[in-house]
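Chain A, query sequence.
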Amino acid sequence: MARYILRRLAIAIPTLFIIVSISFFLMRVAPGGPFSRERPLDPTVLANIERAYHLSDPLFLQYLRYLGNLLRGDLGPSFVFRDFTVQDLFRTGLPASIQLGAWALLISVVLGVVLGVIAALYQNRTVDYAVIGTAAIGITIPSFVVAPVLSLVIGVWLDWLPTGGWGQGAWQYKVLPIATLALPQVAIIARLTRGSMIEALRSNHVRTARAYGLPTRSVVVVHSLRGAILPVVSYLGPAAAGLVTGSVVVEEIFTVPGIGRYFVQAALGRDYTLVMGTVVVIAVFILLFNLVVDLLYALIDPRIRYD
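Chain A, predicted structure.
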């Protein structure tokens, strides 16, 4: 197992290098720049600013300098948020995104798996149709529709929860963003669990367990759910990375100071270093979560070995 983990980490290094390289050059190909304005700056002033940030150097030299700084853990200064480095922004924004994403992921897994199992046990009945119909609605309605509706109904009309802000991390400010993040994930996980659970309930070893007279709870939880949960675990890798690193739409609507909101403003302002820093953070999370998912396979399914 240890050799497998080391091998995966070794493979992740060139993968991250390729992601960083492609993102760096794509950002520079896009028109405009961090100091482009509707009213152009004086050419002399613009030249001095670009020289100060080394933007007037040849592109390949900028690329090598960025890789050298990245190896030292330096993500560079932000061009949009003056007097702040990218690390400063992540230090304040990443904890908020992680809190929202972690709670949304936990709620999604618990509710999604429970609803999927119930739908599979009552296949082609009213409960099954209700779960599938609700899941279809949750998948098709985008977050930028769900968030304003929740904010209007629960925050404005009923006045139960605040409609925006962070409030020093108070739980009242987290409920609506977490609900908005969790709803589509609950729907997707419920559908995945239902499909794999139906297949597992029809498998030969589950029929044998029922023939031996094992309790229904044991048949469902131990013999069926253990194999049916594998597709859900596969989905959790990229889903967890996306939730934990922040949602662009949700953080913008609820004015949460997370890195997803910074990413939008950085992309609009051509803040090269902040966009690259966000790409690096998201890539690292995806690589780590995919490794965790592969390790969970071996814990859930004894037939999988990484020796």
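The CA atoms of residues 34 and 270 lie 5 Å apart. The mean pLDDT is 80.
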